[in-house]
Design brief:
Layout: H1 3-19, H2 37-45, E1 49-54, E2 59-66, E3 71-78, E4 84-91, H3 108-114
Antiparallel strand pairs: 1-2, 2-3, 3-4
Length: about 120
Amino acid sequence: MTKRVAVTMFGLVGAVLAAMAGLEWRASVQAQTPLPARFEAMAASGQLIALSSDVSQAYQQVTIVDPTARVMSVYHVDRASGEIALKSVRNIHWDLQMEEFNGVSPAPREIRSLLPGR
């Protein structure tokens, strides 16, 4: 793929992402903080959610979440060439059905057993 094609693809993807509900690019995303209200509203309406974060000086990471299909995809964008590389796609439906995974004690089951009336 030529550099011109890669830059054009990068531009097209950027335009599509920017057009999706006027999303603002965020310099960093922290999983431990709740999603802003606009993302919750987008998820409720089934719109795609796009998040951007810096992976390194060389790459930007773009994560797209489709709340209706329960699928997420992760892309790395090379800052120098504009090349977009699909890193992962995953249907998260079954992930969201799990009560716990790779957690530490106390597990949800243990907490539930400590509550009165259980």
